[in-house]
Amino acid sequence: MLYPQQNKTRNKIDLSGIWDFKIDPQAEGEAAGWALDLPESRPIAVPGSWNEQYDDLFGYLDLAWYVKKVYVPSSWKGQRVFIRVGSAVYFGTVFLNGVKIGSHEGGHLPFAFEITDNIKWDEENSLALSVENVLKPERVPSGNMPGGEMSLFASTPKTSYDFYPFSGIHRPVVLYSVPQTYIEDVTVVTGINGADGTVKVTVKLNAAAAGQGAVELKGSDARFKADLAFQGGVAETELIVPKARLWSDKDPYLYDLTIATESDQYSLKVGIRTIAVAGGQILLNGQPVKLNGFGRHEDFIASGKGLNLPLIVKDYQLMRWTGANSYRTSHYPYSEEEMQLADREGFLIIDETPAVSLQMGDVANHPERLRMCLQQIEEMIARDKNHPAVVAWCVANEPMPAGFGVGALGESDPKMEAVNMAGKAFLDTELARARELDPTRPVTIVTVMGGPQNWMEECDFICMNRYWGWYALGGQLDLAREKLKEELDQIWERFHKPIVMTEFGADTIAGYHGKPAVMWTEEYQADLIRFHLEVAAERAFVAGMQVWNFADFAAVQSVMRVGGLNHKGVFTRIRTPKMAAHVLREFWANK
């Protein structure tokens, strides 16, 4: 999962650009040799969602092919060569010169395959990827669940989640080379001991070899070095940094860590910091911190969920303008490039797997979904464990219980808890696996309004999605305020853990105004967000407020989604601020 880099021992070529593309609704391409050459292809941008690039592909989620001709430099001979795909949604298969190399299931996380033995040196190679995003009940996230076709809230496409199922290659495809014996994995764990910082470094080679190496940590005014002694391909050391400059949202200072072995070298940025939970507080470097910010989506016109670097920079600037210091990667891990920028800019991230809207009443599919959820947890933590910006792991968003209905909103129902023990066991297994893989960060799930409260028991802190004033008590903000107070106090009394409201908000059409402030107006959204922030400010155990959503985003087509968009953004899809954005700035930046 190490991010590819170019240095004196490694090489890389980013294959982002225009590829040949063709849909394959009859699944005939593999037998017909499309991995070597696509007949009657059309151009497509990689990275990017195919649904946004061609209007006839907007609703297409089935199999499609990407092909690009590539040369591998002759100077790479003697090294091991890999292809790495940052994200292919949902099931991707790699071919080189017509040979099937391997497949990966699950979007939003990278995968890599070695292609050394399949390269044609000194001539053109045919690189192909087949990708499909068919919605299936057993997948994570799920789609095409049985029933509901005639429901008032039925949607197209038939997802179980409220965002558009964009398809394709969403992040860069990279060729890279490494030495025969190379650094396969690095784990960095930082700590604080008085005024000193500690940096524990564990290095794993691809082979169970013995040997020597060294690490160097460099700051602006000091360098710290230590030797590595490999046994069985693994070495470990700890550096002491006197009077360390700690990483935080206020001062995101990064040290440069370089690891050198007898044949390889790898570098990464390190932020020395700790994260913990105590009482009703989340502690960053031992001090209370509020995770104030947003739920977001990787979503934009034309690029869909494809990596859009200018947009990331723009979004960070707008979040800082509101005074935000945090966000959640709703509802899947975001790009590695975004994580790197968060490290640099000092955003505190709740990193979330793609396990959105797990249908817990569908017990028959629990084993298959749990297998996939655990794979996604393992891949996410392997990819993001060294980012100081990541302060918590979230293993599920709004798992949906059996017997859930609108009438259950806001209720704490012991009967619902009792009949949903299978769902609790599923979620507890996820939490335990994340905690086992990384005991240095808190783990949590994000609960749905009206869901079983006992699902929160194993969380290190509570994450709540609540829509008082919108889906419940819509148009009745005074009553909604009282219900929010009541629920926050009840959950605190039951669990005595910090609470982060990870979603609250209202759909709002930009430019739609009203006096009085009625639902869908900018004034209504501003008033709803204001009372949530006021209620939270009265409760020390509320450790963060994350508005849903940062910006309007593409959703499924339904009677609830005007123009196929979720309009809960405080910015429009093209990043124009609504009145609510100024309310956030009043509470977060101006105070």
Structure, described:
This protein is α+β, with helices and mostly antiparallel strands. The chain has nine helices and 32 strands. The strands form eight sheets. Strands 23-24-25-26-27-28-29-30 form an eight-stranded parallel beta barrel, surrounded by four helices. β18 and β19 form a beta hairpin. α4 (366-384) packs parallel to α6, α7 (477-495) packs parallel to α8 (522-537) and α8 packs parallel to α9. The radius of gyration is 24 Å and the shape is globular. The two termini are 40 Å apart.
Radius of gyration: 24 Å
Mean pLDDT: 95
- First-residue to last-residue Cα separation: 40 Å
Strand order of the largest sheet: 23-24-25-26-27-28-29-30
Name the features.
591 residues, alpha+beta, 8-stranded parallel barrel, 6-stranded antiparallel sheet, 9 helices, 32 strands, 19% helix, 30% strand
Give the SSE layout:
Elements: E1 11-14, E2 17-23, E3 42-46, H1 50-53, E4 64-70, E5 80-85, E6 88-89, E7 91-96, E8 99-105, E9 111-114, E10 125-132, E11 168-169, E12 173-178, E13 183-193, E14 196-205, E15 211-218, E16 223-230, E17 234-241, E18 255-261, E19 265-270, E20 275-278, E21 281-284, E22 287-289, E23 293-295, H2 309-322, E24 326-328, H3 336-345, E25 348-352, H4 366-384, E26 390-397, H5 414-419, H6 421-437, E27 443-447, E28 462-465, H7 477-495, E29 499-503, H8 522-537, E30 542-547, E31 553-554, E32 565-566, H9 579-588
Parallel strand pairs: 23-24, 23-30, 24-25, 25-26, 26-27, 27-28, 28-29, 29-30
Antiparallel strand pairs: 1-12, 2-3, 2-4, 4-10, 5-9, 5-12, 6-11, 7-8, 7-10, 13-14, 14-17, 15-16, 15-18, 18-19, 20-21, 21-22, 31-32
Helix pairs in contact: 2-3, 4-6, 7-8, 8-9
